[in-house]
Amino acid sequence: QKDDDIEEGDLPEHKRPPAPIDFSKIDPGKPESILKLTKKGKTLMMFVTVSGDPTEKETEEITSLWQGSLFNANYDVQRFIVGSNRAIFMLRDGGYAWEIKDFLINQERCADVTLEGQVYPGKGAKESERVKNKTKPEKAKKKKDADKNSKGIKEENRATKQRDDL
Description:
By secondary structure, this protein is an alpha+beta fold. The chain is 34% helix and 18% strand.
């Protein structure tokens, strides 16, 4: 073996061969079981929205508590704040993503968790937003905006509202 050869465990994730999938563990009634097995050992990211219109500092504190709880439960999760009420939770092993999602949606201040294109409403979600497993919320939002515009209701833009509040 040459000195410059890289061992399989040291290769970047995209160059490693995929882990073999044991199809006997797949429950045909639960499509999430297939995703769990295919994401095992791969890096995965999930978006988490904090409810109640928090500041960025409040979002930092709340998600830090969640990350600490997950760390204490031996889940390796990194957290990145991406907005005043949103954070990305990055997992080194995507096989645990659904367990972490279940923990997060049971938190009082969790509005929703987006995982693999699915939006799971949390305890902190408003009743109108608790439509179970909404898929691709962008399409629903575009349709809603189109309906408003077709009715002739003129909506103020975000910059105007912020200027008025100042």
